[in-house]
Design a protein that fits this description.
This protein is an all-alpha fold. The chain has a domain of 26 residues.
Length: 82
């Protein structure tokens, strides 16, 4: 079975196209990996921030409840005088 020069040329062209596509896919994969790494680093930074936000909202809520139940009634004279 003989292979013609034209068929060999087509195969070489196909191999070159596959190599070019693989290079593009490799670059795209690197770009995707870089984007995922950037997302992970931002997520790691946010990891501590949401804990601080929850802690801070707890403190603000406790101070607000104290103000509503103790400080404001005392300030407006709503508590019984002793």
């Amino acid at each position: 079975m003989a292979v013609s020069d034209r068929e060999i040329g087509e195969l070489i062209g196909d191999v070159k196209a596959i190599k070019r596509d693989m290079t593009r896919m490799e670059n795209d994969t690197k770009d995707i990996k870089a984007a995922v790494d950037r997302f992970n680093s931002r997520f790691d930074q946010m990891d501590g921030a949401w804990k601080l936000a929850v802690w801070g909202s707890g403190i603000v809520g406790a101070l607000g409840m104290f103000a509503l139940t103790k400080a404001l009634p005392f300030a407006f004279g709503l508590l019984p005088r002793i």
